[in-house]
Amino acid sequence: xxxxxxxxxxxxxxxxKSFEESVAMAEMAIADGITHVVATPHASPEFRFDYxxxxxxxxxxxxxxxxxxxxxxxxxxxxxxxxxxxxxxxxSRFCIHQKEYLLVELNEFAIPPAMDQTLYEIQLAGLRxxxxxxxxxxxxxxxxxxxxxxxxxxxxxxVTGAS
Length: 163
Fold this sequence. Notes:
Number of strands: 8
Number of helices: 6
Helix content: 25-40%
Structural class: alpha/beta
Number of domains: 1
CATH class: Alpha Beta
């Protein structure tokens, strides 16, 4: 079992508050049968994404849990002008395990007007967008055909388990 969207790293965003809490979250994942976790702190105007710090925190947590759980890096990527510019310069640091999958988070109340074009440009750059928890977005709840269109055009979707 893989958890590809987890705010397990302490002090990065609104996830784990301490290293001890990170370890406790990892232990709960192990107990639930999860074998791989992607640490995905927010990359947003509110939470600055520092890949070197993320990588260091993942290595520290990996040492604490040993081989019982495999950890990888990624982020919960918000579509801001600053993030998109940074993505163009160095896409892999934002992606799951520095490969091609990019978690893209929308806010709960809006969809950027140029969303179709932005997703298309992300794909042209060789990345595979994964729309995270679309069920939280009021527009997508009332217009699911928008999400369906993105998925038909090659995007993926990650729905929160409790939804």
